[in-house]
Amino acid sequence: MIWLLIGFTVITNIPAIVIYLNYYRENKNTKFTLDFEEEKIIITKDGIEKEYLKTEIIKSTYHLGIYYKNAIDRAGRLPMLISDFGYWDLQFKNGDRYYLSNILHDFLHEAPQVPKTKYRFRFYPYINKKDTKQAINLNEKPKKEKTLTETFIEKFKTKNDKQLREIIDNKKSYQKEAVEAAEFVLKNKNVGIN
């Protein structure tokens, strides 16, 4: 019984350990300070200190666990052991780029430190320097997915009247959404439907 408990504990903690090691490897020789009065960021990496003004930032993205996407879509995801991990992808005009994880400072779950900060939500928020997916604004509404009828409407806009009537007249051969789309497109072309 004890071995089962130990095994379960190890298996459930492996993702958190892997992320922690990923963050540690990236930030082991890094320190940073946010100076709110002078609006600058001081970053020391491998013993070299650099100072940046907030106006020099060209990209600011918070990478957080998928649990924090609840703030946008109210989906009710449950927190996991890896939910509180996250990092700040910060890029400056001179080309310098840093990945500052929350093992340095736990600030990621508060209001963003820089205006126009975008968010990227991932199930497993390890530092991925090759991530090219678009981040979103936190107050931006997620794009609504098209319904099947809307998809058919887009497809059918190029069909002529005869093709649309073929779909409407043979309802049993087509999906209900396809027939609705054909009727809609035909109606918008100002042609009567029988």
TrEMBL record:
Domain PH: 4-106
TM ranges: 6-24
Annotated Pfam families: PH_40
UniProt xrefs under InterPro entries: PH_40
Keywords recorded for this protein, A-Z: Membrane, Transmembrane, Transmembrane helix
Domain of life assignment: Bacteria
Name used for this protein in its record: PH domain-containing protein
Origin species: Mariniflexile gromovii
Organism lineage string: Bacteria, Pseudomonadati, Bacteroidota, Flavobacteriia, Flavobacteriales
